[in-house]
Amino acid sequence: MNIEKVRVFLEEKGFLDRLHEFPQSTATVDLAAEALGVDPDQIAKTLGFYHGDGAVLVVAAGKRRVDNRKFKDTFGGKAKMLSAEDTERFTGNAPGGVCPFLVPPQAEVWLDVSLKDHDTVYPAAGSAHSGVALTWQELESLCNPAGWCDVCKDREAQP
Description:
Blueprint: H1 3-13, E1 19-21, H2 29-36, E2 43-51, E3 54-61, H3 68-75, H4 84-91, E4 107-112, E5 122-123, E6 130-132, H5 136-143, E7 147-149
Parallel strand pairs: 2-5, 3-4, 4-7
Antiparallel strand pairs: 1-6, 2-3
């Protein structure tokens, strides 16, 4: 996928005015937060993990880390992150620009409850130079996730 497909999707859904594109990279949480001028925890990062023959994509607040025990209890297996090559294969996006909507059927999107700590979150929009300003409720409606999960460490437990 590329940002052009996301742009068309956002226009169809009435959210095109929320799309931000930058000349500088937004490929990491810190770079995206700096470009957008927001708290890093407001970045809605999409993390890809192997799951059976497909992938599970967990969208979580930017500074949260996955708790391996919670992940295993929720998804029935170890949290093994997708390689860069498999990230593109399963999501249609390169690492650093994984968009949590318009996801191919072999990847299942889950939203982590950590997103609910923020009124506005900023997922990538199909490139490592973009972000979309959305409420978590709007993100949920655009992603059509398999569900909500709680697989991140508590904020207080973050390093």
